[in-house]
Amino acid sequence: MNSRAELLIHDLLEKIPRNPNYKSIPIRRSGPSMIVWHCDDAPNWDVWDVVGYDLRPNHLSPKGCPVPTYSYWIARSGRIYKIAQEAYVTWHAGVSRIDRIRYHIPDWNEVAIAICFAHDPDTEPDLTPEQYESGHLLSAWIAVRRDIQSNSIRGHRELAVTGYDPKTGRLRKTCPGLGIDLDAVRRSVRDLKLKLLSGELHLEVRVVQ
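Predicted structure:
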């Protein structure tokens, strides 16, 4: 018998204010080819803390970001929030043009959909089971829709330049947390993706405002 699962997404797009410092929102020139897992590195933020930080002056820009830096944010309870369109180029792991040329890498912002977890690696050894369940299902669903390969699901720390130094291999970020086994994440998403494609798993996706 085929199994069933539910993916519930809380869509906040209509409730998120527009940053008045930007006339337009950058849009991808082509479809995304990667999914990147991040953490908010905060002990007690909720989704509105993340959105507020991104839209006001921050470490990325004195004008704030055009939109939140992640497409999705997953609470410790496993609840999924959509906070930016997948078509938007969000500022989650940008690489300068000089470094893109030097290291023959893309602009991660341009090619990757960013998923962020409520997670503080300094005080929490790992994500919650609920976050893993939501993160795996969400990533598999995106990967099927966008034809993204399972080995193209990365953690921020695995991205050249912004996550680690390509010359030395030294980490610049531990995001989404060193306790997260990213190889295990890719295996889980691959298995879910195969089940979805074969029809072994039926995923009911519900989007609520």
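Summary: The beta strands are 3-11, 34-39, 72-74, 80-82, 112-117, 153-155, 201-208.
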